[in-house]
Amino acid sequence: MANVVVVGAQWGDEGKGKIVDWLSERADIVARFQGGHNAGHTLVIGNQVYKLSLLPSGIVRGGKLSVIGNGVVLDPWHLEVEIAKLQGQCVDINPDNLLIAENTSLILPLHGELDRARESAVGVAKIGTTGRGIGPAYEDKVGRRAIRVADLADKATLELRVDRLLAHHDALRRGLGLDPIDRDALIQQLLDVAPKVLPYAAPVWKVLNDARRAGKRILFEGAQGALLDVDFGTYPYVTSSNTLAGQAATGVGLGPTAIDFVLGIVKAYTTRVGEGPFPAELNDEDGQRLGERGHEFGTVTGRKRRCGWFDAVLVRQTCATSGVSGIALTKLDVLDGFKTLKICVGYELDGAIVDYLPTAADQQARCTPVYEEMEGWSETTAGARSWADLPAQAIKYVRRIEELIQCPVALLSTSPERDDTILVTDPFAD
Q1: Which of 8, 349, 368, 423 fits 225 for a cystine, CB–CB 3.0-4.6 Å?
Q2: Residue 105's beta-bridge partner residues?
Q3: Which domain holds residue 54?
Q4: Which positions are annotated as binding IMP (predicted)?
Q5: Which of residues 173, 197, 221 is at a domain's end?
């Protein structure tokens, strides 16, 4: 059976939640492979709206096994709150339908404090983090001082891990003018939350490898977007993990041959939250209109998103770095009524035209977009479920995007409703 990875192919907020939910009905398992609770998915199912930031989207679909992989950093207190919130919406969550990798690193309160202290430090350029501790938690993971889910099961091991962690953090906190951590209080906090987490702990790598051999369909779900990848994104204005499709295997404990299809989620225009370069950003009436019509506010933070025309240069780049098999184009209906549309097809850099976003920050800052104009359409695309329902100019726009990004459209989403989707290529086809 085919296994599918879903990744955001821009700066996140492309509408992954709806697409993952749409695909999850055909999957047996939905696995989250990176990130923390700093990005969210909004799912609309009937009259119910679910807002998820840590749990895999499949959790709202009865009978689907949802998995949090080792590539994720987990805030156990947030997990407790999010589970309780969904249970209050009549979602059944138990160790039979939710598993957490035993080797998943934890986000602790000290991580959030450090994150916020750094962002507010005078004279330091802001990254635009959510302040939820994701970056510092990944730092501790790489620094081999993280506390992991399995450590919660043994007090002696936990104490050793905390001592190693605090030897690093108390020194950092002194430099930032913060009080040292109360060691005993932190250990007690972890012991108190352990019973809320440990029932879900499992050797996820083994569960998924067994499932794959049994022919189960696995849907791999990422957070953020490819342009926020710590290696290939607009560094340093990125997240702290690898968001590209290749991380799906490492982030749950499978080999690269487990990935059969990579679906890149792409918005029909471009948005980003936070600081950093954005060559096609619009600071005019068109940008305002895109934001208002697209309801461009972050699911988790509520922050207003910056908006711009579709940037084919960036999406072509992310399709290459993630090995995208086909894209799911979302929010086409937001473009309804524009007399003229523009697509960024290149950048002018120091008098030359370049067809990719340079790595160097100073060069990125000097890039100005080169636009191609297309006629818009006055008819509505909202709710379309077949190509025949789309205006001719909308089809031309989609086809031009395919040409420019050198990748076909596999799905076309025309509203937040899960059934308002045009299927071109089935990602789960064997």
Answers
A1: 8
A2: 73, 148
A3: 4-102+201-258
A4: 13-16, 38-41, 130, 144, 224, 239, 303
A5: 197
